[in-house]
Design a protein that fits this description.
single chain; alpha/beta; Rossmann fold; 2 domains; seven-stranded mixed beta sheet; five-stranded mixed beta sheet; 49% helix; globular; binds NADPH dihydro-nicotinamide-adenine-dinucleotide phosphate; binds (2Z)-2-iminopentanedioic acid
């Protein structure tokens, strides 16, 4: 690292103790930016790194709610409003027992650069709670969401900060949150995205992250005159992103042989067909069951506590959570023939895993580029809401596809300009950063 990036990284670690995921996200970005600071001293002069690593605002609040037994429960809610220099704060809400400030800050920090890459006017933010929706009744989830919004509403608005879904927050949670927003404020504005169709949601938003991740892989493959047809793919997770990544891989002629959840992984060497995928959607979105049931239903292998990364493959799509591929697992992937990794999840690869991808010159699409289709389509949902319009499926999907093609082009060219062609991580960090940094300079010191 240059002296400047080194110094700021040390300050970040010192000022934000016990936030390892945030340190990791900052380290990766700062490392990539070294050649930028060598070329353009204006960023250091304006103390852009010191400013961009410090959230504009962090809101932490109590979320009390009453469970079905009449017991009072207390969770912690938070929203990190990280950077608004190119648009209103935008980013999801995560409900998971592991949620803490460091995790929300890593996600918010990544979101700044991801949103910048979409080419839309969206700043970076993220929020969530340590509430665990697993095993809760719909009524409990509703009461929690109502309590969460009863505090959050005063900090957000359609042109201020627009949350959406992430792990543990899907259409059900967004519906309850929006209902409470409407009750308190009476306003129909796009204060949340990922809404259901009936009250302003966009077609293709549910599919957008997964589809976009596969579109990004397709663009990377094109640079080697290749495509997904006939390729064996490993997908992790079995939630929103994994489901629609699988669907798009099928559309493009690939074969998906794995899915997983936090309990284990299934391996279906015949490939997940559309019928089997319909079963997964019903299992996960309606019955809220475990992926183990897939193995029982279709008589395939289930590995308790297992991960998909041990099987022969050409392409991997990590779509579950952060740090789900470590250096050893990355080596196994490459040894088994994997030469494409497109990240549906946020920061699913450790720094050691990324080193393995880069050393082996595989096609590696980092999350902030490869999974930007979700937030980009959230931007399209906002555009439809502000215009009181509702676009058809083809229109939204075409726009999503165009955005992913453009992100790929921007990232590819930035990597080439900085002398590392094919290094999508470097390209994504540099291109995402420069737009935001320039906007910050143009707006003066604040
Ligand atoms: P969901 O809640 O729909 O699904 C999450 C999936 O990942 C589930 O299968 C879950 O298993 C698994 N998972 C979660 N935590 C862990 C863990 N600690 N270890 C192993 N497996 C885990 O979330 P999404 O599909 O929306 O999100 C998946 C990833 O994609 C996240 O990294 C998210 O930040 C990212 N992302 C999401 C976007 C979106 O639009 N939704 C946009 C861009 C990125 P289980 O059910 O057992 O918990
Ligand atoms: O990580 C992400 O980009 C998301 N969870 C989606 C954010 C959004 O505002 O749609």
């Amino acid at each position: 690292m240059s002296n400047y990036t080194d110094r700021v990284y040390e300050q970040v670690v010192e000022k934000n103790p016990s936030q390892p995921e945030f340190h990791q996200a900052v380290e990766e970005v700062l490392d990539s930016l070294k050649p930028v600071f060598e070329k353009e001293p204006i960023f250091e002069k304006n103390k852009i790194l010191e400013r961009i690593t410090e959230p504009e605002r962090v809101i932490i609040f109590r979320v009390p709610w009453v469970d079905d037994n009449g017991e009072i429960q207390v969770n912690r809610g938070m929203r990190v409003q990280f950077n608004s220099s190119i648009g209103p704060y935008k980013g999801g809400l995560r409900f998971h027992p592991s949620v803490n400030l460091g995790i929300i800050k890593f996600l918010g920090f990544e979101q700044i650069f991801k949103n910048s890459l979409t080419g839309l006017s969206m700043g970076g933010g993220k929020g969530g709670s340590d509430f665990d929706p697993k095993g809760k009744t719909d009524n409990e989830v509703m009461r929690f969401c109502q309590s969460f919004m009863t505090e959050l509403y005063r900090h957000i608005d359609g042109r201020v900060d627009v949350p959406a879904g992430d792990i543990g927050v899907g259409a059900r949670e967004i519906g309850y949150l929006y209902g409470q927003w409407k009750k308190i404020t009476q306003k129909f504005v796009p204060v949340l995205t990922g809404k259901s169709r009936e009250y302003g949601g966009s077609l293709v938003r549910p599919e957008a992250t997964g589809y976009g991740t596969v579109y990004f892989a397709q663009e990377m493959l094109k640079t080697r005159n290749d495509d997904l047809k006939g390729k064996t793919c490993l997908v992790s997770g079995s939630g929103n992103v994994a489901q629609y990544a699988t669907e798009k891989i099928l559309d493009l002629g690939g074969k998906v042989v794995t899915l997983s959840d936090s309990s284990g992984a299934i391996y279906d060497p015949e490939g997940i067909t559309r019928e089997k995928l319909a079963y997964v959607l019903e299992l996960k979105n309606v019955r809220r069951g475990r992926i183990k049931e897939y193995a029982e239903e279709f008589g395939v292998e289930y590995v308790k506590g297992g991960q998909p990364w041990v099987y022969k493959t050409e392409a991997a799509f990590p779509c579950a959570t952060q740090n789900e591929i470590n250096g050893e697992e990355a080596k196994t992937l490459v040894d088994n023939g994997c030469f494409v990794v497109s990240e549906g999840a946020n920061m699913p690869s450790t720094i050691e895993a990324i080193d393995v991808y880069l050393e082996n010159k595989i096609l590696y699409g980092p999350g902030k580029a490869a999974n930007a289709g979700g937030v980009a389509t959230s931007g399209l949902e906002m555009a439809q809401n502000f215009g009181f319009e509702s676009w058809d499926r083809e229109t939204v999907d075409k726009r999503l596809h165009r955005i992913m093609v453009n992100i790929h082009k921007t990232v590819y060219e930035a990597a080439k300009d900085y002398g590392e062609p094919g290094n999508y991580m470097l390209g994504a960090n540099i291109a995402g950063f420069k737009k935001v940094a320039n906007a910050m300079i143009l707006q003066g010191h604040w």
